[in-house]
Design a protein that fits this description.
Layout (H helix, E strand, L loop, with lengths): L3 H8 L5 H12 L7 H23 L3 H19 L6 H12 L1 H9 L8 H16 L6 H19 L4 H15 L1
Helix pairs in contact: 1-6, 2-3, 3-4, 4-5, 4-6
Length: about 180
C-alpha cells in the first residue's frame, strides 16, 4: 500500500528549486540587511538546505523519507503563509503555495532531482542551434526539427549511434515497400 505522499510523488511533476531560489535572490539583490526580501531569500535558502540535510540522514529509509517529506512540506507551507508585505515576497509565497507538492516531491521520490538542471542541459544543444540558425522559418520546419531532435536524443540515451541507427531504419523502411 502506497501512502498519499508516495502516490503524489509518482503522479506529479517537480518544480525546480534553482529557479525559485534564483528569483528570490534577484529580488533580494541590493537590499538592506534588514529588508523583507533579503529575509525571505535567506529563509527560503536555509529551508532548502535543511531539506537536503534531513534527506541525507534518511536516504535509504522510505519511512524516514516520508517523515521528512511531511515535516518539510509543513514548514514550507508555514513559511509561504506568513504575512509578507512586499509584492515580490507575496508573489513568491503564492508560487510556493501553488506548487507546494511539486517543490517537495524530490524528498519522497529518490528518482526526482530538486532542480531540472539535467533536463535543461539536455536541451541546451537544441536551444543553441535554434538561436544561431535564427529558428525555423515555418511551423512545419519547427515540427520537423523537434521530431528529429527527439529521435536523436532518444537514440543517444539508448547508447545508439545516430548515423548507423538512422541508416538501418531507412533500409528497413525501404525494404518494407
Amino acid at each position: 500500500m502506497w501512502s498519499a505522499a508516495v502516490v503524489a510523488a509518482r503522479c506529479r511533476k517537480a518544480k525546480c528549486w534553482a529557479h525559485l531560489l534564483r528569483d528570490s535572490y534577484d529580488y533580494a539583490k541590493g537590499q538592506d540587511a534588514d529588508s523583507e526580501r533579503l529575509h525571505f531569500h535567506r529563509t527560503l535558502h536555509t529551508l532548502f538546505l535543511e531539506m537536503g540535510i534531513a534527506l541525507d540522514q534518511v536516504q535509504a529509509d522510505p519511512t524516514g523519507r516520508e517523515r521528512v517529506y511531511d515535516e518539510m512540506r509543513t514548514k514550507l507551507w508555514r513559511f509561504a503563509s506568513e504575512h509578507w508585505c512586499t509584492w515580490q515576497c507575496q508573489q513568491l509565497a503564492e508560487r510556493i503555495k501553488k506548487y507546494l507538492d511539486d517543490l517537495v516531491v524530490w524528498l519522497i521520490d529518490p528518482a526526482v532531482d530538486p532542480t531540472n538542471n539535467a533536463a535543461e542541459r539536455a536541451l541546451r544543444g537544441a536551444v543553441v542551434t535554434r538561436k544561431t540558425s535564427f529558428g525555423s522559418r515555418s511551423k512545419r520546419g519547427a515540427h520537423a526539427f523537434a521530431r528529429m531532435l527527439s529521435i536523436i536524443m532518444t537514440w543517444e540515451r539508448q547508447g545508439k549511434d545516430f548515423f548507423s541507427t538512422a541508416h538501418q531504419a531507412l533500409v528497413d523502411a525501404y525494404s518494407q515497400n
